[in-house]
Write a sequence for this structure.
């Protein structure tokens, strides 16, 4: 099983080699290297921790595809961090981001057709999606405005709310629409990053993506609130029955 956990770090090593290749084409700054290395290490550490907690006997083909996506996201992170200091290769950045988005459709297919679908894989896939969206928002902010960061921060605001409100930490049921919204948002942000769209069109598309995300997260919050209310009602009813039981059993 330790071999399985070590394999989670292979992608960090491969990601480092890819960063070297990217550096040869579009030189990375120190900040870029630091951001990319941190992203690669964090994603590998999270995958390894998840495998260890679930006592996984193997990595699984679907998780391998998602780990490859996380490696590509680490490279995108390095390039975006570099772009804040010196210009980077936009075509290369867009190409790598597009590959990460394309693989997003592959891991689910592989999971379903190899019988390797798991809670860990779904969660890992979701976190990779969320971080890619955040990184692309950071790049696109200079094109459409810093308000676009709200798209990338919604997921982390939801997580923070779950820490403060335990009823929001209840596992959500699978919903394909979440995947559609995340993919559409990633595509929009990548298209904006390509800088081929008029600014007004880019702003409208980003606003539409934000509306989709708000609808998706809002639907989940409503579901969680209803579940919390139902649970509270059941608990209250149960307590009422326990309190009234002895009184009803007394002889008249």
């Amino acid at each position: 099983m330790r071999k399985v956990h070590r394999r989670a770090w292979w992608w960090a090593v491969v990601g480092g080699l890819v960063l070297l290749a990217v550096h040869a084409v579009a030189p990375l700054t120190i900040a870029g290297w630091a951001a990319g290395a941190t992203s690669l290490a964090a994603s590998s550490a999270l995958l390894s921790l998840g495998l260890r907690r679930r006592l996984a006997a193997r990595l699984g083909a679907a998780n391998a595809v998602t780990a490859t996506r996380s490696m590509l996201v680490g490279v995108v992170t390095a390039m975006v961090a570099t772009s804040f200091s010196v210009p980077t290769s936009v075509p290369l950045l867009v190409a790598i981001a597009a590959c990460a988005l394309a693989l997003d459709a592959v891991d689910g297919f592989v999971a379903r057709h190899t019988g390797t679908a798991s809670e860990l894989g779904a969660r890992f896939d979701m976190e990779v999606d969320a971080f890619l969206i955040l990184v692309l928002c950071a790049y696109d902010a200079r094109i459409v405005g810093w308000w676009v960061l709200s798209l990338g921060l919604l997921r982390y605001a939801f997580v923070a709310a779950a820490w403060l409100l335990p009823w929001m930490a209840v596992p959500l049921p699978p919903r394909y629409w979440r995947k559609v919204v995340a993919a559409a948002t990633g595509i929009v942000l990548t298209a904006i990053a390509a800088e081929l769209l008029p600014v007004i069109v880019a702003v409208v598309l980003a606003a539409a993506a934000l509306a989709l995300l708000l609808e998706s997260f809002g639907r989940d919050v409503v579901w969680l609130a209803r579940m919390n209310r139902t649970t509270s009602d059941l608990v209250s009813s149960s307590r009422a029955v326990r309190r009234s039981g002895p009184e009803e059993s007394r002889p008249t």
